């Protein structure tokens, strides 16, 4: 056999059939792929897996002992059934086999082994039908079977047994056997990490780490293997991210010096910049003037004045005739940004910079005009949606791309817009505070800037949970209070999780655009029972609180509020993502102008919408929203001279997680703290994209929720290494690793 390395295809080591089966099961192709398919946990031969509480319907792998076995004729059909019971010493689990009498000879009482199969329930008892199993006494490594020396027997019983993620076709021990063949065949495992780093971090060499992870002699073997491999994962990822960032940063781009345009804008500003705006603005101004592209992520609470910072950057770029593109996730936001850009510029600057709006839904003639002025360079600012990235859009000299609500876009989209210029500067913005470890991992190729300070004069926001079931009176009072505020000149938002009755919501987070991020799908049962008629609702003192009613939706809520006597003469309108663009814009601008008193909406208004006169945010079925989402929603009020009030209505009962989440939102206004809470409550996969059919798509041992320090430490080490050897000339192994990581990074950032 030829020399076996980590890059060798599995087929040459373990045979074509096994290789194909492994590829099908886990997407592994090379020796390295398989060695990185790590055990999920480790059992011991002497330590049986508890059999209580096994998840019905799921594939399990358990270590157990055969208790007894019996063969009987089937009652209704011809044939035999073998039933063996296995035990963990406490509970039992039945293994059943149809017409396989030979099983009874294998499944002798007292034998121990690993059993794998799908758990089902039959007449109240758990069973595995036609499970796979392997007995320990058949292990080649068991010295002497039953006549073990006492010490050897003890060692044998205590040796950890790796339990691999398995499928029906590919049980754990088959994986183990293939892994063993690969480990035996590998001649030399070069370690891409510098020896000095291995020593200073106390890491196992790569080959030794694989050996200890897959064939541990004791617990400390696999523990140190895991530690080493986890460090490597963090280090590889950070090195790749930093390398990519430095590559980008080294590319040439046009320096954009600030000048008269920015000066006259600043001179006309009706307020002074906050300290953070000044500081962040200084960093950005400096970097725009460098002959290399800036790549920055600007995070700051809603209303902290990010858009203003972005606009000042655009003015700096415009000084030398450069153009800027501001990309927003929805039509509503794009239109709003456009209006506020025009307004903030004032008539003189607006005439000189000629900002244009580009969306997919605008009339063809208008769009053509806008595209023409971008191509000729007469428009120096473009505001738009995804439409900005489409092929027909060309820029004369794109110098800066600003991406609002970065988390709603993927890396390729950021890339697509970047491609429209010669290395334009990139400013990505987000109002969803990103915990540091997530920022380092998912957005590690962007350097973060943060605005923590809000502009002065904000009145603050108070948040209360309104438990509809426990306190129906308080729920009724919500509508009373809303009406009072409207009477004193304010406006109200009401947010619902669904668009209309008969549609149940899909509240997945992280969709591309809020336009799509809304409710649709199958009807909910039991609508007739709910208080959906306007009369019923007002009788209960407002949209009714019912234990098992369908989710609150926009269209019913509009009808219910309109029917309340208290709201007579007030304008109540709906806004949802399924409405035609012009209609949405119409509603939004009427609300902004104060002509609509109550705006009942889905989460289309989640991000960036700015109506300073709005004072109350009412969220119905608030427990159906994510923690960060609620925080975003609350940020829509208290943006002007009036204090904000956020009322989180919910039927979730005290003590439930759902209730705890909304209580957490009510308890703190600190978006960063909430982002951390959100992180705790969400599964890892939700944050870094869901696992795609194995392969190298997601994190393996690393957990952004728990490994913050490790990630930060690895980043520091990776940075120092690149400082000394930016092209990794003395570390060819790491250079090769980085090109492999590229694909991995793309997947990570698609969250
Ligand atoms: P963000 O994009 O971070 O949500 P915006 O840039 O939309 O915030 O700012 C919110 C509001 O605050 C806008 O009306 C803006 O004009 C105003 N604003 C921004 N900076 C300041 C400041 N330094 N002082 C007072 N008001 C400000
Ligand atoms: Mg904004």
From TrEMBL:
User: Molecular function terms in GO for this entry?
Assistant: ATP binding; DNA binding; DNA helicase activity; hydrolase activity
Could you identify this protein by its name?
Probable DNA 3'-5' helicase RecG
- Organism of this sequence: Leucobacter komagatae
**Which Gene3D superfamilies does its entry note?**
Nucleic acid-binding proteins, P-loop containing nucleotide triphosphate hydrolases
Per the database record, which ranges form the Helicase ATP-binding domain? 287-451
Record keywords: ATP-binding, DNA damage, DNA repair, DNA-binding, Helicase, Hydrolase, Nucleotide-binding
Checking SUPFAM superfamilies in the record gives: Nucleic acid-binding proteins (SSF50249), P-loop containing nucleoside triphosphate hydrolases (SSF52540)
Q: What domain of life does the UniProt record list for this protein's source? A: Bacteria
Q: Does the keyword DNA repair apply?
A: yes
């Amino acid at each position: 056999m030829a020399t076996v390395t980590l890059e060798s295809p599995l087929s040459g080591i373990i045979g074509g059939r096994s290789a194909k089966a492994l590829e099908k099961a886990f997407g592994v192709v090379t020796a390295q792929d398989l060695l990185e398919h790590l055990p999920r946990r480790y059992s011991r031969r002497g330590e049986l897996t508890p059999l209580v509480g096994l998840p019905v319907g799921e594939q399990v792998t358990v270590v157990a002992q055969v208790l007894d076995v019996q063969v009987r004729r089937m009652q209704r059909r011809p044939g035999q059934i073998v039933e063996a019971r296995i035990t963990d010493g406490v509970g039992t689990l039945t293994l059943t086999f149809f017409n396989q009498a030979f099983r009874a000879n294998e499944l002798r009482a007292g034998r121990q082994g690993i059993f794998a199969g799908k758990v089902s329930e039959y007449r109240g008892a758990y069973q595995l039908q036609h499970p796979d199993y392997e007995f320990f006494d058949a292990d080649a490594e068991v010295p002497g079977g039953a006549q073990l020396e006492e010490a050897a027997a003890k060692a044998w019983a205590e040796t950890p047994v790796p339990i691999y993620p398995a499928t029906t076709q590919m049980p754990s021990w088959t994986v183990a056997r293939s892994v063993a063949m690969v480990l035996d065949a590998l001649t030399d495992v070069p370690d891409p990490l510098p020896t000095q780093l291995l020593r200073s971090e106390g890491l196992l060499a790569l080959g030794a780490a694989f050996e200890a992870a897959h064939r541990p002699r004791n617990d400390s073997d696999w523990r140190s293997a895991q530690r080493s491999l986890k460090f490597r994962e963090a280090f590889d990822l950070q090195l790749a991210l930093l390398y990519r960032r430095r590559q980008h940063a080294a590319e040439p781009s046009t320096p954009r010096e600030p000048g008269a345009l920015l000066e006259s804008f600043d001179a006309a500003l009706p307020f002074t910049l906050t300290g953070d705006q000044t500081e962040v603005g200084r960093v950005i101004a400096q970097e725009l003037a460098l002959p290399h592209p800036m790549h920055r992520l600007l995070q700051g609470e809603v209303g902290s004045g990010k858009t203003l910072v972005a606009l000042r950057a655009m003015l700096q770029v415009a000084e030398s005739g450069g153009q800027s593109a501001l990309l927003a996730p929805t039509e509503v936001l794009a239109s709003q940004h456009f209006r506020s850009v025009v307004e903030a510029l004032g008539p003189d600057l607006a005439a000189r910079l000629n900002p244009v709006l580009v969306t997919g839904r605008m009339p063809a003639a208008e769009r053509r005009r806008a595209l023409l002025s971008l191509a000729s360079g007469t428009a120096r600012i473009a505001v738009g949606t995804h439409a900005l990235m489409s092929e027909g859009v060309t820029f004369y000299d794109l110098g800066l791309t600003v991406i609002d609500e970065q988390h709603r876009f993927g890396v390729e989209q950021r890339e697509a817009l970047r491609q429209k210029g010669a290395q334009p500067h990139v400013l990505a913005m987000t109002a969803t505070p990103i915990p540091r470890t997530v920022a380092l991992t998912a957005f590690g190729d962007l350097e973060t800037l943060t605005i923590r300070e809000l502009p002065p004069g904000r009145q603050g926001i108070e948040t209360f949970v309104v438990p509809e079931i426990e306190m129906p009176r308080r729920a009724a009072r919500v509508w009373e209070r809303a009406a009072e505020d409207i009477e004193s000149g304010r406006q109200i938002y009401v947010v619902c999780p669904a668009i209309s009755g008969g549609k149940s919501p899909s509240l997945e987070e992280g969709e591309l655009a809020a336009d799509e991020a809304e409710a649709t799908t199958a009807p909910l049962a039991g609508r007739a029972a709910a208080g959906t008629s306007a009369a019923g609702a007002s009788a209960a003192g407002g949209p009714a609180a019912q234990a098992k009613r369908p989710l609150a939706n926009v269209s019913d809520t509009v009808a219910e509020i309109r029917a309340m006597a208290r709201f007579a003469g007030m304008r109540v309108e709906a806004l949802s993502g399924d409405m035609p663009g012009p209609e949405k814009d119409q509603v939004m601008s009427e609300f902004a102008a104060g002509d609509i008193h109550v705006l009942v909406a889905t989460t289309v208004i989640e991000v960036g919408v700015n109506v300073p006169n709005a004072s109350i945010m009412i969220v119905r079925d608030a427990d159906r929203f994510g923690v960060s989402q609620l925080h975003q929603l609350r940020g829509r009020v208290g943006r002007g001279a009036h204090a904000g009030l956020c009322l989180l209505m919910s039927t979730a009962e005290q003590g439930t997680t759902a209730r705890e989440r909304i209580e957490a939102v009510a308890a703190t206004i600190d978006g960063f703290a909430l982002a951390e809470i959100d992180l705790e409550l969400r599964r890892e996969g939700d944050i870094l994209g869901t696992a795609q059919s194995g392969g190298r798509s997601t994190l393996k041992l690393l957990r952004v929720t728990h490994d913050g320090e490790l990630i930060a430490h690895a980043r520091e080490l990776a940075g120092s290494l690149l400082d000394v050897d930016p092209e990794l000339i003395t570390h060819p192994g790491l250079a090769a690793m980085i090109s492999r990581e590229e694909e991995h990074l793309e997947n990570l950032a698609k969250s």
